[in-house]
Every structure is written in structure tokens, then in C-alpha cells.
Design a protein that fits this description.
Largest sheet: 3 strands, antiparallel
Distance between the termini: 82 Å
Number of helices: 18
Number of strands: 11
Strand content: 5-15%
Strand order of the largest sheet: 3-4-7
Radius of gyration: 32 Å
Helix content: 40-55%
């Protein structure tokens, strides 16, 4: 068997890094590193029609950004290369022909028209399409004649039609499939390139992969993979099939449906470490109440036997919360550096950005929320007069007007117009008038911000926008309330 744990991440360069793909990479990385093994990157580009320019760079960059550093791969080298399937074409053809000689595979020369007819018949009978083994009965002479004539062909796996095939999966247990359900899948396509299914098996064996991590959608194909391992006389690896990631109870998470990829989440202001942490918990239970884990933590505690069978629901609310926890753990300088580009999208005047970061650091869940949190600073937004009415604060039009009219001269005469100066002056006013804090502070904050929710209170906002702007906004508030 295998003397070392070796896992692989084998994506196709067909677009962005989906959340499900990243989870597969993460679990494969954790299984290997937990056991001190090797993590391999292999690019599966045999489906040339689906390739997207630049997608391979996305794969490399995502693994680098998330810290999932591979030990072997196209850019890292290794003794089992090349690590790009299109560069291994001759290898697959050699092994496919070996299966033909063993009777475990055969040449198929069927035309597209004949295959289309078979598919139409299957649809009419409401049965899954299954090739009818027509070319299996060709004689050796007929095959040689067709090959020498240059007739296009594929090589198909020769699966039995009776009995059953079983395999063991770490997560789903023993699974058996009736052989009559197994199609004779294509191993080598007419362009000479292997299918995904065949190349996977050959490469996983030659690269000594001990554990295969993939989505549960591949469970139905695994019996065919196993029959290939058995036909070659190769050891079967450990299978770890992961449950699907769902958008809700009915829909799978899918980029095709507009669901976020890893790149989308980062662009929206999620921290890479938070996304990776959250994805780790989509289908895996650490067995403890703690939920915040660094990659180093995950390497230590990850046990793939604790992956769940049931689908995992992608919860944006939970991800936001977790991202907020990661933002809080940033140093002030780290947060400020990340926040400045968002300030510059919203603010054109020369505000004290450090003061804004002091307000937002522990109040921000996602960086892309920042513009909405600070849009009132530069210009007072239009707001509804009903904002002054707050049941809990016990404010209404009348006492809000009274509070603003009392605050105005206090702030107008204030020489030390700073956070501390405003706080002291307004606190003294509240004590003098004998009202509850909210009766003064809620109308003042409303007048200064024009918003129901702000990252700071009245004192912080006044300090940010300055004396002149504060007085101007209070005047607007007084005028609104007088006309109510």
C-alpha cells in the first residue's frame, strides 16, 4: 500500500475558484499536512473546449493567497511530472492500449449519428443513455482495417453487465452498484486526449496519491474508477467524498447561478483567512465549540473522518460574523491600511482617516460595508423627520427640537471643539436640564448624521465633521422640526 499520505488538488482551468473547489483543495491539503504528507497540484486540461484563458493563474494565485502551498505541481516541479494533463497525452494512450490487450477496454468506431440515435432511443424509453457495446464484437482484422483506414475512434472501458461492483468511502461507507448500470465510459477521445475519468485514475496511480478528496457527485462514477484500478492490478486509494455545498435546501451553490466565488468574496471585502476558516466548517465538524481557526490550527486538529454526509448550507450571515471576528483581530494599523481604499471611494475632503478607523475597526463585518457606514460624513443625506422619534429614547418632535435648540449655543460657544470637549459640554448640558441622556443625544446624532445607524455616537460624529459643519447640520435639524 502507500508508505506516505499524498493528496492532490486537480482542478480544471475553466474559470474562477468556486467555494466548493476551494474546500476540496483545503481538505486535501489538511489531510496531507496533518499526517506530514505531500500536497500535489495537477492541472486537468483535457477538455480543451472548456478552457478559460487566465484560469490557471487564478488557481495558482488562490492557493498562494490562502496559504495552501503545494509540494509538487506545474510551477513547483516534482519527480512525478509533468503535472499538466495535456502534456501527458502519450502516457494515457499507452495505458489505454494495455487495457485493450487485456480485454478490459475496446476500440469504438461508432459515428456521431449512430450515437445520437442511441441517445434518442434512450430518451424515448426514459432510460439513462448506455452504449450498447456494438464495437466490442469487432474482430481483430476489422479493427486493424479501420485503424489503418484512419477511421476516427475512441477507446471505451469494457464493463460487465451482470453482478455488482462495490467500494468503500470514508464518509458514505460501503456502496454497491449493479453492473448493468455501468456505461462503457470513454477512456481516450477521438482527439487522442483522455477523458477526465481515465486520466484521473492513471495520474493518481502514477503520482502515488493515497487519499482522493472530491465532491459526492462523483460517487456514481467511482465504481468505474475502481474497475480500472482492478484491471491494472493497482492499489485502490482511500476515497473521501464530501457533501455538496448548498445555497439553500433545494439549490446547490453554483457560480452559474451567480453565487460568489472566492475572488468575488475577497473583492467584496472578506478577508482570505476568514473565508478559508468558514469553508473548512462547511461539512466538517471539529468536535469542539470553538469556530475560529487559523490554517495552522486546522492542520493540527483536522480529522477527515468527521466530515458529514449531509449537505452543508452556505450561510452568508455566519460568514459575515466570522469575517467581523477576523477584522477585530487585526491590529489597528492593519485595519487602517485595508480600510483606506474604501474611504477614498466615498470621501473627497481631507478628513482625519485615522479617527474614522478608530470608529470602524470593531464595528465592521465586511470591508465593502465601509462606504455605506461613512457616506454621511462628507455630506448630510436627505432624511425623514420621523428619525427624531424614538420610542426607547423617549424622543418626539417637541423634545427633539428643544434639545437641538439647547445644544446649538453650547457648541457654538465651545472653544475646545474636540471629542472630549463636545462630550464634556453636552454632558454638562444634560445634567443641567435633568433629562435622560437619549433625549439629547438621539436628536443630536440624528441631526449630525441624518441616519438611523452610525458607527459612532453624537460626540464622535461632531469631532469628525468639525464645528462649522456640526452647527450647520443642527440648524437644518431645527428647521425640519419647526416645520414638522
Amino acid at each position: 500500500m502507500y508508505d506516505k499520505v499524498r493528496t492532490r488538488f486537480a482542478p480544471s482551468p475553466t474559470g474562477y475558484m468556486h467555494v466548493g473547489n476551494l474546500r476540496t483543495a483545503l481538505y486535501a491539503y489538511l489531510i496531507a499536512k496533518h499526517e506530514g504528507g505531500d500536497f500535489i497540484l495537477r492541472i486537468e486540461d483535457t477538455d480543451q473546449e472548456r478552457l478559460v484563458q487566465g484560469a490557471t493563474d487564478v488557481i495558482f494565485n488562490t492557493l498562494k493567497e490562502t496559504g495552501l502551498i503545494h509540494d509538487e505541481g506545474p510551477d513547483a516541479g516534482g519527480e512525478y511530472g509533468p503535472y499538466v494533463q495535456s502534456e501527458r497525452r502519450d502516457i494515457y494512450l499507452k495505458y489505454a492500449k494495455e487495457l485493450v490487450e487485456k480485454g478490459e477496454a475496446y476500440y469504438c468506431f461508432c459515428s456521431k449519428e449512430r450515437l445520437d440515435m442511441l441517445r434518442e432511443n434512450s430518451e424515448a424509453l426514459k432510460r439513462p443513455f448506455k452504449y450498447d457495446k456494438h464495437c466490442l464484437s469487432l474482430s481483430k482484422e476489422e479493427i486493424e482495417e479501420k485503424l489503418s483506414s484512419g477511421i476516427p475512434y475512441v477507446i471505451r472501458q469494457n464493463n460487465p453487465s451482470v453482478g455488482s461492483t462495490s467500494f468503500d468511502d470514508v464518509i458514505y461507507g460501503k456502496i454497491s452498484v449493479d453492473n448493468e448500470e455501468l456505461d462503457d465510459m470513454i477512456l481516450i477521445k477521438s482527439d487522442g486526449l483522455p477523458t477526465y475519468n481515465f486520466a484521473n485514475v492513471v495520474d493518481d496511480h502514477l503520482m502515488k496519491i493515497s487519499h482522493i478528496v472530491r465532491g459526492s457527485e462523483y460517487l456514481s462514477s467511482t465504481p468505474k474508477y475502481n474497475r480500472l484500478y482492478q484491471a491494472f492490478g493497482w492499489d485502490v486509494p482511500v476515497y473521501v467524498h464530501c457533501p455538496p455545498i448548498m445555497k439553500d435546501a433545494q439549490q446547490k451553490l453554483s457560480k452559474r447561478n451567480g453565487d460568489a466565488s472566492f475572488q468575488d468574496l475577497v473583492a467584496k471585502g472578506y478577508l482570505k483567512e476568514a473565508v478559508l476558516n468558514y469553508i473548512a466548517l462547511l461539512g466538517w465538524n471539529p468536535g469542539i465549540n470553538e469556530e475560529i481557526f487559523s490554517l495552522e490550527d486546522l492542520v493540527k486538529i483536522f480529522d477527515y473522518h468527521n466530515i458529514n454526509k449531509s449537505p452543508a448550507i452556505f450561510d452568508p450571515v455566519k460568514l459575515r460574523w466570522m469575517n467581523g471576528e477576523y477584522i477585530k483581530k487585526l491590529s489597528f494599523d492593519e485595519f487602517h491600511t485595508l480600510a483606506v481604499p474604501y474611504y477614498k471611494k466615498t470621501l473627497s475632503k481631507d478628513f482625519n482617516l485615522m479617527k474614522i478607523s478608530e470608529l470602524l475597526h470593531t464595528r465592521t463585518e465586511v470591508l465593502s460595508d465601509i462606504p455605506e457606514q461613512i457616506d454621511f460624513i462628507e455630506a448630510l443625506p436627505e432624511y425623514d423627520i420621523d428619525l427624531y422619534v424614538h420610542k426607547k429614547m423617549k424622543t418626539n418632535y417637541e423634545n427633539s427640537l428643544s434639545s437641538l435648540e439647547e445644544c446649538y449655543p453650547v457648541l457654538e460657544e465651545l472653544e475646545n471643539f474636540s471629542l472630549e470637549g463636545v462630550r464634556d459640554a453636552i454632558t454638562a448640558l444634560i445634567e443641567k436640564t435633568g433629562v435622560k441622556n437619549g433625549v439629547v443625544l438621539w436628536p443630536l446624532r440624528t441631526a449630525l448624521s441624518g441616519k438611523k445607524f452610525t458607527p459612532g455616537g453624537a460626540f464622535e460624529i461632531a469631532d469628525l465633521i468639525g464645528k462649522e459643519e456640526s452647527l450647520k447640520r443642527i440648524e437644518i435639524g431645527i428647521e425640519k422640526l419647526k416645520n414638522a
